[in-house]
Specification:
Blueprint (H helix, E strand, L loop, with lengths): L13 E8 L5 E8 L2 H10 L3 E7 L13 H16 L4 H10 L4 H15 L4 H6 L7 H13 L2 H58 L5 H37 L1 H13 L3 H22 L4 H9 L5 H15 L4 H8 L4 H13 L2 H56 L1
């Protein structure tokens, strides 16, 4: 009798092709990964795209193609800027950069844009067909370069901007990753001790037949629970993590609440504030220098800060600037920007050198983030050692207390 065919597990790394309309009403299309159509639709809407058609492609993400990262776009921007500065024609530059890229997915993207350009499509429109990789800010800067006839110079500015923002992002990840990694290692070590080491001591204590100290009984009780219910604990932690991730993805209020909490958090909060200000200043300086109108530039800047709180404040500033209010006054009313940033902006507005002043602000705060991350690492190292030492030391003391007690009785 033939056994029924086993149903394959649902693929969590599917690739979906989609078509839709962006904020400007232009048709865009692309491909994005996701677990199902609903999650892809929600992801596209968060990026300002109204999807009209979504379908699962026959190729998954596992076919040797890595996901395109922001670092890939940064490297591509620098390579293309170098090619253009050297006088290489645009189509040829795309061909050289595309065929030499290590990531097949990025290679396909670049060559797709090249084919559109070859067919007569403007570079801005060719890039805009891929909004998940080339956002509104990127396309606006390219459009400004094309219109002014300085595409090579503008690509160089884009490459510099991307490199700076990637550097800031890397520093923030460094600040958050180190303590998180050490805490995870500490939890793994503690779990191994509780499940495999403590039961051995318990067998030894049972053979003594003596009463155990309260602290030792507590640790043994926790160990017994973990040994018996480890699978339930694992499922509960995994389910909680998945539920939090889904809620965070689908709930703007939760993201805003977490963002607000992180900004108020000691030590980490000031770093996140400085990073958001650095991104704000760097993005606005780059766009304003490219000739993008201030109101239009603020729309793109809002999405580049990496903070929901700053993004909402900048959108409010945009509305105020659109009614004729000065940028520095709207920044003052936002209650998020330090006095130094407001004064530098005011000087830049009065002197007609806003891009230059914002560039200096960005340089200053990028260096501040760098110094703060280094200081945080130096501060956390001894604190983490104390926490891990206290945790493991407590378990050791709990296990040796009965032995010390019996030794004293003898």
């Amino acid at each position: 009798m033939a056994l029924p065919a086993k149903k394959p597990d649902p693929d969590k790394n599917l690739l979906f092709a989609w078509q839709g309309m962006d904020r400007k009403g232009q048709r865009v299309k692309g491909e994005t990964p996701g677990s199902d159509e609903a999650s892809v639709r929600a992801d596209l809407r968060r990026q300002g795209i109204n999807p009209t058609k979504i379908r699962k492609t026959s190729k998954g993400l596992g076919g040797g193609k890595k996901k395109i990262t922001s670092k890939d776009i940064s490297v591509f921007s620098r390579q293309l800027a170098t090619m253009m500065s050297a006088g290489v024609p645009l189509v040829q530059a795309f061909d050289i950069v595309g065929r030499g890229h290590d990531n097949p997915a990025m290679q396909d993207l670049i060559l797709s844009v090249k084919n559109d350009i070859q067919s007569g499509t403007a570079l801005t429109l060719a890039l805009a067909k891929h909004p998940l990789q080339f956002d509104e800010l990127f396309c606006n800067l390219v459009q400004a370069g094309e219109q002014a006839g300085v595409l090579d110079t503008m690509l160089d500015k884009i490459a510099t901007y991307k490199e700076k923002t990637e550097s800031i992002k890397g520093k923030i990840k460094k600040a958050l990753f180190y303590p998180a990694a050490v805490i995870i290692v500490a939890l793994v070590v503690t779990t191994v001790i509780m499940i495999f080491v403590i039961p051995q001591f318990k067998s030894l204590f049972d053979s003594f037949g003596a009463d155990l100290p309260a602290f030792t009984l507590l640790v043994v009780g926790i160990s017994d629970f973990m040994v018996e219910w480890w699978w339930l604990i694992g499922m509960a932690l995994g389910g909680a993590g998945y539920a939090i991730a889904q809620a965070f993805k689908r709930s703007p209020k939760l993201r805003e609440g977490l963002d607000r909490t992180m900004l108020k958090f000691p030590i980490i909060g000031p770093i996140l504030h400085k990073a958001a200000i650095a991104r704000f200043a760097r993005t606005l300086a780059t766009m304003f220098a490219a000739g993008v109108p201030l109101v239009e530039a603020l729309t793109s800047v809002a999405g580049a800060t990496g903070s929901v709180i700053y993004s909402e404040a900048i959108l409010q500033m945009r509305e105020q600037v659109a009614t004729g209010q000065s940028l520095q006054l709207s920044m003052r009313q936002a209650n998020l920007f330090p006095h130094l940033v407001i004064q530098m902006t005011a000087i830049g507005e009065e002197a007609g050198s806003l891009d230059d002043m914002l560039g200096k602000v960005a340089d200053f705060y990028e260096e501040e983030v760098d110094n703060a991350v280094d200081a945080l690492s130096s501060l956390l190292e001894p604190m983490i050692m104390v926490v891990i030492g206290g945790l493991v030391g407590s378990l050791v003391v709990a296990m040796y207390l009965p032995i010390f007690k019996m030794g004293a009785a003898v």
